[in-house]
Write a structure and sequence with these properties.
This protein has five helices and no strands. It is an all-alpha fold and about 100 residues long.
């Protein structure tokens, strides 16, 4: 099977695992037969775009995150402890 299909299948499995759902539960939520869902997760068959969109909508993730593995809305943040880090004083009220 195609490498990209295998990668999408891994992301589907990872998403389901992170939500702590069984294949049966995930399939029911997405409205597909359990056997189809299992085949998609294994990468044993072509994964329809409509199914990827349904999974994304059902579980609240970006479709592009399932397809490419990149989340366009990834949040990056940094923690800086008081008294450490670079200073930046733009105005008197902002330090």
């Amino acid at each position: 099977m195609n490498t990209q299909i295998k990668q999408i299948a891994e992301r589907l499995r990872g998403l389901r695992d992170s939500l702590d759902l069984s294949i049966a539960q995930a399939a029911e939520k997405c409205g597909v037969p359990e056997t189809d869902y299992a085949r998609y997760e294994l990468g044993a068959s072509d994964i329809p775009m409509s199914f990827i969109c349904e999974v994304a909508q059902t579980f609240g993730v970006e479709t592009t995150a399932l397809i490419s593995g990149n989340d366009p809305h990834s949040l990056a943040y940094f923690v800086t402890r008081k008294g450490t880090g670079a200073g930046d004083e733009r105005t008197k009220a902002y330090k």
